[in-house]
Amino acid sequence: MGSGQVTDWQGKNVTVAGLGVSGIPAAKALHGLGANVTVVNDGDDARAREQAAELRALGVTVRLGDGATLPEGTELVVTAPGWKPDKPLFTAAREAGVPVWGDVELAWRLRGPDAAPWLCVTGTNGKTTTTQMLASILKAAGLRTAAVGNIGVSLLDAVLGEERHDVLAVELSSYQLHWAPSLRAHSAAVLNLAPDHLDWHGSMEAYAKDKGRIYEGNRVACVYNVADKATEDLVREADVEEGCRAIGFTLGAPAPSQLGVVDGVLVDRAFVENRQKNAQELAEVCDVNPPAPHNIANALAAAALARAFGVPPKAVRDGLRAFTPDAHRIALVADLDGVAYVDDSKATNTHAAQASLAAYESIVWIAGGLAKGATFDELVARSAKRLRGVVLIGADRALIREALARHAPEVPVVDLDRTDTGAMLAAVQEARRLAAEGDTVLLAPACASMDMFVNYNQRGDAFASAVGELGT
Fold it and tell me: E strands of 7-95, at which residues?
């Protein structure tokens, strides 16, 4: 099971690690191919028992409450992406010489001979938006495509399903890339690199290395962020097919082999004849929704991947115009008394919050939640001049308050000593008090939400609901 396609799964003993969005489709697919499948899962709650019953009815063996032991005779482990590499199950697999694949690796190996090529996207922030923009552009070009992967649509379903695709827009997390050693994309982009998930990867170097796997074996283009040298370094280190090109994207005027912005127009100096002298107009900045700087960067990365696949300029413009961002990503909730209320609950780390804060000139910032080991000094120092006021909520708000005291001591701060769900209404009321006409009240927490909310969606909904109460 080392390399190449596995054609005969009949009787193979495969252990699937973890129930859930990737484990259940993997178990069903492998069972359908004739493998002897055993699912192991740490949890043994009501939900897990329900899922186990469904799989057992098909003839799959399920072991709940024991994700540490490698079942006897295992020839391959297929893991959910979130399982950490230092788990005892993987140590046992390594010692037994048993390969470990993620769901992405399994999907890659199960592709048919005429399978659609993959255009892949990763990065600390912006992955989902860029992948959705890319799919919108590809559709505008008349191509059969889908946005799949870490975006919530199973790659296995896309690969094994009835629907035929010309090309797939694939979002990949660092976890998924860690477990996908033989993935070889048509073209791929790393949007940015900032510390995240270091508790899982162990170090920034390991995190960057896993992100960089997306470039391995690329055929046409490795797309990198000119403003983020770490992404270009990953391209330099990658072993790609001969003729594969490094393509940069920049918010400034592009050099040859780059896409960038000139006088409010997105332009291509990479996929044109005589790129030393020529540039191709693709779209206007106002075609990007919303036209915040980091989102224009997302659009340029999506355009670069689409152009690498041969998409015409008009499809880039039409695809960007047709794209609607997901909820809770820099979404304008309301404009009350000349103050804009913007929901970017998706900004769950400092890098995402920095991009959000950079989009507005005068901000009343609502922040706080679970810090996940993050520090806030750089974020506050870079954003201080934009802050009219700050309202803090959540378990780790003191970390942000201390950074504000060090780097923005003149900015008024309201510290709501609350972690209850109702704190959002109080936060919005305090933000309104601090805001003046022309300001933006921005929910960009720079933290995870689970101290107060089920997820960032619920947090954003609470913000929108609170803003709605102001307007009545």
Answer: 13-17, 36-41, 61-64, 76-79
Tokens, residue 214: 């997306």
**Cα–Cα distance measured from residue 423 to residue 410, given in angstroms and rounded to the nearest whole number:** 25
CB atoms within 10 A of CB 164: 9
For residue 192, the Cα-to-chain-centroid distance in whole angstroms is 11
Two structure tokens written together for 41: 């899962």
Burial class (CB in 10 A: 0-12, 13-18, 19+), 219: middle
Task: Categorize the per-residue pLDDT at 3 as very low, low, confident or very high, splitting at 50, 70 and 90.
Answer: very low
Residues 6+ apart with CB under 8 A from 446: 347, 348, 349, 350, 352, 353, 367, 368, 369, 374, 376, 379, 400
Q: Is 443:344 a contact under the CB 8 Å cutoff? A: yes
The Cα–Cα gap between 279 and 261 comes to 11
Neighbours of 133 (CB within 10 A): 31
What distances in angstroms separate CA 145 from CA 134, 137, 165, 322, 323, one per listed residue?
10, 10, 5, 15, 15
Q: Is 166's pLDDT higher than 70?
A: yes
- Contact assessment for residue 403 and residue 387, using Cβ atoms and an 8 Å cutoff: no
Q: What is residue 196's predicted lDDT score, i.e. its pLDDT?
A: 55
Lookup: tokens for 104: 């992405």
Give backbone dihedrals phi and psi of 220, rounded to 5 degrees, phi first. Answer: -115, -50
The helix/strand/coil state of 250 is coil
The phi and psi torsions of 176 (rounded to 5 degrees) equal: -65, -40
Rounded to whole angstroms, how far apart are CA atoms 322 and 225?
24
Q: What spatial distance separates the first Cα and last Cα of the chain, rounded to whole Å?
A: 63
Cα separation, 329 vs 433, in Å, equals 24
Contact by Cβ (8 Å): 223, 301: yes
- Give the other-Cβ count within 10 Å of 288's Cβ: 23
Comparing 156-170, 257-271, 298-312, the range with the smallest average pLDDT is 156-170
The per-residue pLDDT for range 36-78, each reduced to its tens digit, is 999 999 989 888 999 999 999 999 999 999 888 999 999 999 9
Q: How far is it, in rounded angstroms, from Cα 220 to Cα 186?
A: 6
Strands 36-41 and 13-17: parallel
Instruction: State the pTM of this model.
Output: 0.78
Contacts of 116 (CB under 8 A, 6+ apart): 145, 164, 165, 166, 167, 168
| Alpha carbon separation from 286 to 263, 306, 335, 379 (Å, rounded) | 12, 19, 20, 27
DSSP assigned state of 117: P
What are phi and psi for residue 303, nearest 5 degrees?
Answer: -60, -40
Cα(375)–Cα(321) distance, integer angstroms: 37
